[in-house]
Amino acid sequence: MKLGLGSYAFRWSIGIKDQQPPVPMTAMEVLEAAHAHGLAVVQYADNLPLDRLSPEEHLALKARADSYGMTLELGTQSFDAAELARYIPIGERIGSNILRVALDAEDALIPVPELAAQIRELLPDGKRAGLRFAIENHFNYPSPRMVQLLDAVSDEALGVCLDVANSICAGEWPMTTVRMLAPYAINLHFKDYEITPDPYGVGFRIHGTPLGEGRAELSEVIEALADRDPDMSVILEHWLPHRPEDMAATRAEEHVWLARTVAAAKRLVPGNHCMSV
Questions:
Q1: Label partner for 39 (CA 20 to 30 A): which of 31, 51, 71, 259?
Q2: pTM of whole model > 0.90?
Q3: Distance (Å, whole) CA 67 – CA 59
Q4: What whole-number distance in Å separates Cα of residue 58 and Cα of residue 206?
Q5: Count of domains in the chain?
Q6: What values do phi and psi take at 266, rounded to 5?
Q7: Interatomic CA distance for residues 3 and 16, integer angstroms
Q8: In 138-246, which ranges are continuous DSSP H helix?
Q9: Long-range CB contact pairs, 240-248, < 8 A, 24+
Q10: pLDDT average per 10 residues of sequence, the chain (277 residues)
Q11: Using alpha carbons only, how large is the chain's radius of gyration in Å?
Q12: CATH number of the domain that 213 lies in?
């Protein structure tokens, strides 16, 4: 397996919604951070949309990755024809073999046969660009419905970007999700989480931790993927809570969490391919 960095590991340094840093982290800086940690892959998701860069900037990004012996992956949101028309050429330009797509609440409202038909129409363009589509299990798209969709399309160019914790929001315990979606997985988002009770006893809170410091069954996740592609990328993310009153400290802490996460991943993922730095 190839260990990689997902752009959501720098959610606060890149900026999201109303939390925008004075100087947002760039795509090139994310690549440099991954290289500094000896990671082999960078996956740029929708929080760092590469369609805002020029073709020349895409090529510069690929040239830098090539010089490090690293590969790049691409991600966007929803199977929107106009969006993918922009992203498929970008994926080809940066040498990505995966286009990660996250389905969410609005997609869940589309009947499976209708969404499957839309996806089938888009697959040929992706194949010509050397891309496989990896649908991420997201907060509001239940895994049984995802399996229905994958089986309805039934194409080797379509698989799952398996996230370890996202589907808690859809009412699934993580290993239920993993066992259901592992046979379709072509990409893994590896993160950890903790569940802490409210001090007054009114429920509990699910929040992120550095990898290996929470309750995610990480070894079981890797074991469930043992028969998948041995070159599958394992993309490292985390759910670092932010402190609105001190976002500079939060952004600094992203680097600390990433270092701890990378160290744990190198222990947990057997035969992982990392780069020397």
A1: 51
A2: yes
A3: 12
A4: 37
A5: 1
A6: -65, -25
A7: 25
A8: 143-153, 174-181, 218-224
A9: 240/11, 240/12, 240/208, 241/207, 241/208, 242/12, 242/19, 244/19, 247/12, 247/19, 247/21
A10: 97 96 98 98 96 97 98 89 89 96 79 92 93 90 92 96 88 91 97 93 92 96 93 96 94 98 94 66
A11: 18
A12: 3.20.20.150
- Whether 276 is covered by a domain: the verdict is no
137, 177 Cβ separation under 8 angstroms: yes
- Residue 277 falls inside a structural domain: no
Burial of 150 (0-12, 13-18, 19+ CB in 10 A): buried
Identify whether the C-beta of residue 38 lies closer than 8 Å to the C-beta of residue 274.
yes
Length of the chain: 277
Hey, what amino acid is at 21? P
**Count of other CB atoms within 10 angstroms of residue 186:** 22
Q: Which SS3 state, helix, strand or coil, does residue 208 take? A: strand
228 vs 236: CA distance, rounded Å: 18
- Specify if 132 maps to a domain: yes
Q: Residue 67's domain spans which residues?
A: 2-268
